[in-house]
């Protein structure tokens, strides 16, 4: 099974940087995903890490350390539209099931 | 390219009734996943279908069931509805497990049980 922890809420100002941490415990790791979910909408894919290191995609970057069971999502140059819930999800290598954390609600203030 | 579609958008039922939710994956995707997202809670994995077969299910009672059709669309059935079944039900699809990494989500069906 999976045990995934991420902070409940974070607040930051427009133009700033926010780092959302995610720690996990898993019996079989096959990748870590970050999704963005605006209120009342479906999650949308942000990033995927399966090897250690940093993956950069525009204003968003994601980091993975498999030995530490740790990942973070970095949001740079925050915009008001980045206010959303950010979900960390770990995929099991045996059944390809995604297990999601409870999500981190990020509020961007002017 | 059309995304994952789900129907209906909203569904209102009473306790004890049965609900049927439908999902059409992205063309070419053979895997379909169902998740439940209750208010204030994270996504909980319900079921996974791949190439017509149930591959895995989450920790939900047997009254949650489903199937996948030859065209890879899928149906989720919830029998003997209970108030706590009220939630957003999300369907996601991906290329088959041998090639796919990302799951693409549909807009969801909001089920309300009165």
Keywords:
heterodimer; A: 110 residues; 6-stranded mixed β-sheet; 5-stranded antiparallel β-sheet; 11 strands; B: 114 residues; mainly beta; 4-stranded antiparallel β-sheet
Explained architecture:
The complex is a heterodimer of chains A (110) and B (114). Chain A has no helices and 11 strands. With 110 residues, chain A is mostly beta strands. In chain A, the strands form 2 sheets. In chain A, strands 2, 4, 5, 9, 10 and 11 form a 6-stranded mixed sheet that branches. In chain A, strands 1-3-8-7-6 form a 5-stranded antiparallel sheet, with no helix packed on it. The relative contact order of chain A is 0.34. The model of chain B has no long low-confidence stretch (mean pLDDT 92). With 114 residues, chain B is mainly beta. Chain B is globular. Chain B has strands spanning 5-7, 10-13, 19-24, 31-37, 44-50, 53-57, 64-68, 74-78, 87-94, 104-105, 109-113. In chain B, strand 7 (64-68) and strand 8 (74-78) form a beta hairpin. Classes of the chains: A mainly beta (110), B mainly beta (114). The interface between A and B is medium-sized, with 21 and 22 residues.
Rg of chain B (C-alpha, Å) = 13 Å
Q: Report how far the terminal alpha carbons of chain A are from each other.
A: 40 Å
Mean pLDDT of chain B: 92
Number of strands of chain A: 11
Give the percentage of residues in beta strands of chain B: over 45%
The Cα radius of gyration of chain A reads 13 Å
Topology order of chain A in helix (H) and strand (E) letters = EEEEEEEEEEE
Q: Can you tell me the residue ranges of chain A where pLDDT is under 50 for at least 5 consecutive residues?
A: none
Q: Helix tally of chain A?
A: 0
Largest interface: A-B, 21 and 22 residues
The helical percent of chain A reads under 10%
Instruction: Look at the helices and sheets of chain A and give the structural class.
Output: mainly beta
What general form of chain A does the structure show? globular
């Amino acid at each position: 099974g999976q045990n995934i922890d991420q902070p409940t809420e974070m607040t930051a100002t427009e133009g700033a940087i926010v780092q959302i941490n995610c720690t996990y415990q898993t019996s079989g790791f096959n990748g870590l995903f970050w999704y963005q979910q605006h209120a009342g909408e479906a999650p949308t894919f942000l990033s995927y890490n399966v090897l250690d290191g940093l993956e950069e995609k525009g204003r968003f970057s994601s980091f993975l350390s498999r030995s530490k069971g740790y990942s973070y999502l970095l949001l740079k140059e925050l915009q008001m539209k980045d206010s959303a819930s950010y979900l960390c999800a770990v995929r099991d290598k045996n059944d390809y099931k995604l297990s999601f954390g409870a999500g981190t609600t990020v509020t961007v203030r002017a | 390219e059309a995304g994952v579609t789900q129907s209906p958008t909203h569904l209102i039922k009473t306790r004890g009734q049965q609900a049927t939710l439908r999902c059409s994956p992205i063309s070419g995707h053979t895997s379909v996943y169902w998740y439940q997202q209750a208010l204030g809670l994270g996504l909980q994995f319900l079921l996974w279908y791949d190439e017509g077969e149930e591959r895995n299910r989450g920790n939900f009672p047997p009254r949650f069931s489903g199937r996948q059709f030859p065209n890879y669309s899928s149906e989720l059935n919830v029998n003997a509805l209970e108030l706590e079944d009220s939630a957003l039900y999300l369907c996601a699809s991906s290329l088959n497990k041998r090639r796919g990494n990302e799951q693409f989500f549909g807009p969801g069906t909001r089920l309300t049980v009165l």
